[in-house]
Amino acid sequence: MSATRIRELIVTPIAFRDPPLLNSNGVHEPLALRIILQLVLEDGTIGLGESPGGTARLERLQAAAEVVVGMHVFDSTAVAAAIDAALLPTVPSSHERGWTSSAVEVACLDAQGKLLGRPVSDLLGGRVRDSVPFAAYLFYKWAEHPALDGRPAVGDDWGEALDPAGIVEQARLMRERYGFESFKLKGGVFPPDEEIAAIKALAEAYPGQPLRLDPNVAWTVERSKYVARVLDGVLEYLEDPTKGIPGMAEVAKDSPMPLATNMCVIAWEHLRPAVEQDAIQVLLTDHHYWGGLRRTRELAAVCEAFGIALSMHSNSHLGISLAAMTHVAAAIPDLDHSCDTHYPWNSADDVIVPGVLELRDGAVEVPTGPGLGVELDHDKLEELHRRYVDSGMRGRDDTGYMRRFRPGYELKLPRW
Ligand code: GKR
Ligand code: MG
């Protein structure tokens, strides 16, 4: 048996602490879910991967674990094809199947890098920057998760942010702790004029620093045009103001600033209509659903061909994902904007050994060790897996959680 064949794929669901961050769907629960992958080769080399959590994703990764055994770790295209074929009968959407192969591809690349003694960025063509800039991801938030079902309230060291002053204070803390030089506000929580006021307050507090607003399709086309008009000259881009490619195209016609998305262009088949309708000017890539790191690199080339600028999307995540995001961002020549990351909200519960990934001066240095350059903390993995088991939580439900405190809360998109 060749030393570089896959012996086993260990799939471990975990739960980690998350603050009460507000969005257009409701509010983040006290725990967020991810899945950690360990791809074990015959020679004992282990490649790491991290995937968004939830039962469906877990079951698909478990199915993938059965088909990859015996395959060659350098055959990552064949590995992706085998996973795709295994999932096809039960998962009709190629985009959904892609989530699974993306996570496994990262683990393959980590193992390949370890075998070769080279960082993953080298396997993607080499890094064109030594550090990758990230934006402070600002959220409206409650001071604490309120007490619930006998569980006491859970606070954090960020405090409440429910108005412009609270958002400016959160930006100050983000900057003080991590040195961020650009800011993204998660909107879609309050009436648009209140969020406009928060953006204007940020612009006043941090003149000249790039700002973005992302209401996650909470607005109609007309409302989106209004916000774009009012924030002309203030935002570097407006993210997913309204739903769908035709809606975004309608807004883009009159928008003085670029429109960005991580919602209406999320699969290869969306690119053609988006380009034909000139619906977006910035694409927020995400290797977790674009097919992995190599496909993200290819996506960057497609965007370059069509004059679409690039930035990067994030969801609640830990360090294996951050390392993967950093390697691929380092290998993309035209990375036009700082990337998103939720890491400051979740890093206290990371599963990797601290020290390699530091957010400093608003950037993460590209790890130079073999593979992703990060090491799994097995005790922490066990602790977070236990928390997953004990919590009984099996999926994300921002709306349901919000209703525990505001029973009349309705999910309404667009809301304004
Ligand atoms: O964490 O609440 C959140 C975000 O709204 C996340 O779910 C989005 O996927 O960050 C994301 C975005 O940019 O839309
Ligand atoms: Mg977004």
UniProtKB/TrEMBL annotation:
<dbReference type="InterPro" id="IPR013342">
    <property type="entry name" value="Mandelate_racemase_C"/>
</dbReference>
<keyword id="KW-0479">Metal-binding</keyword>
<keyword id="KW-0456">Lyase</keyword>
<feature type="domain" description="Mandelate racemase/muconate lactonizing enzyme C-terminal">
    <location>
        <begin position="164"/>
        <end position="258"/>
    </location>
</feature>
<dbReference type="InterPro" id="IPR029017">
    <property type="entry name" value="Enolase-like_N"/>
</dbReference>
<dbReference type="Pfam" id="PF13378">
    <property type="entry name" value="MR_MLE_C"/>
</dbReference>
<keyword id="KW-0460">Magnesium</keyword>
<dbReference type="InterPro" id="IPR034598">
    <property type="entry name" value="GlucD-like"/>
</dbReference>
<protein>
    <recommendedName>
        <fullName>glucarate dehydratase</fullName>
        <ecNumber>4.2.1.40</ecNumber>
    </recommendedName>
</protein>
<dbReference type="InterPro" id="IPR036849">
    <property type="entry name" value="Enolase-like_C_sf"/>
</dbReference>
<comment type="pathway">
    <text>Carbohydrate acid metabolism; D-glucarate degradation; 2,5-dioxopentanoate from D-glucarate: step 1/2.</text>
</comment>
<dbReference type="InterPro" id="IPR034593">
    <property type="entry name" value="DgoD-like"/>
</dbReference>
<dbReference type="InterPro" id="IPR029065">
    <property type="entry name" value="Enolase_C-like"/>
</dbReference>
<comment type="similarity">
    <text>Belongs to the mandelate racemase/muconate lactonizing enzyme family. GlucD subfamily.</text>
</comment>
